[in-house]
Amino acid sequence: MSAPMDLRDMVRAIPDYPKAGIIFRDVTTLFGHPEGLSRTVQAIADHVAGLNVDLVAGIDARGFILGGALAMRMGKGFVPIRKRGKLPADVYREEYALEYGSDEVEIHKDAMPREGATVLLVDDLIATGGTAVAAARLIHRAGGTVPIAAFAIDLPELGGAQRLAEIGVSTFAVMAFEGH
Ligand code: AMP
User: Fold this and answer.
1) So what's the pLDDT on residue 100?
2) pLDDT digits (tens, 9 = 90+) for 5-60
3) What is the pLDDT of residue 170?
4) Which terminal CB of the chain, N or C, has fewer other CB atoms within 10 Å?
5) HSE-up of 29 (CA within 13 Å, CB side)?
6) 110-129 per-position pLDDT tens digit
7) Does residue 26 fall inside a structural domain?
8) What residue owns the CA closest to ligand 1's atom 10?
9) From the CA of 13, how far away is ligand 1's center (Å)?
10) CATH code of residue 68
């Protein structure tokens, strides 16, 4: 039997997108591979197996793909953290700076099943950590706790895990790439 393909090789690198100097790590090729999404989800599920997670929260939009699949694999509910203006009921909102630009994310105020619910936060990629920190703050404001955030990809040189650690959230990433 041949060795399984390295998950890193399923991620397409697009230089200078969306602007010069950024190497865009495209997960559509990872998620499009017959084993890519499944093995990524399983690696995260294995890593958090010892935690009593109540639900999975995914960040708009690629975090929905990973988070939805993970919630199903773990038998948990899924909560969306969306870009501004998309959620229909009352929301909390956080503004944050991106690696390129700035944005706002929202969560339904009643998204937690109970005060202190344990939430696994999920996104496709962590760069500076601005998005994930804003998402974790939203979960805190809604009454949840976030012991860990999980990503398919970490860009460690950008310091995202450090920023999450500063608000008490540990980071797990299935793979890492050098650079921006
Ligand atoms: P950050 O807030 O800096 O951690 O950026 C994380 C968000 O921006 C994630 O939702 C990623 O999808 C996206 N992102 C940032 N940098 C990249 C990159 N180099 N390649 C692909 N996506 C990126």
Assistant:
1) 63
2) 999 999 999 999 988 999 999 999 999 999 999 999 999 999 999 999 999 999 99
3) 98
4) N
5) 12
6) 999 999 999 999 999 999 99
7) no
8) 125
9) 13
10) 3.40.50.2020
Dihedrals phi, psi of 27, to nearest 5 degrees: -85, 0
Is residue 116 one of the residues assigned to a domain? Answer: yes
Identify the CA nearest to 13 among candidates 2, 28, 26: 26
| R_g of the chain computed on alpha carbons | 16
Distance 30 CA to ligand 1 centre (A): 15
Catalytic one of 73, 84, 93, 99: 99
**Dist CA 149 CA 6 (whole Å):** 22
Which of the residues 62, 82, 94, 106 is marked catalytic?
A: 62
Among 16, 62, 125, name the best residue to mutate to test ligand 1's pocket (greatest count of ligand atoms within 8 A of Cβ): 125
In angstroms, the CA 52 to CA 31 distance is: 27
Ligand 1 neighbourhood includes 171 CB (under 6 angstroms)? no
Ligand 1 atom closest to 97 (CA): 2
Contacts of 117 (CB under 8 A, 6+ apart): 54, 55, 143, 144, 145
* Pairing assessment for the beta strands 55-59 and 77-83 based on DSSP bridges: parallel
Active site residue 166: no
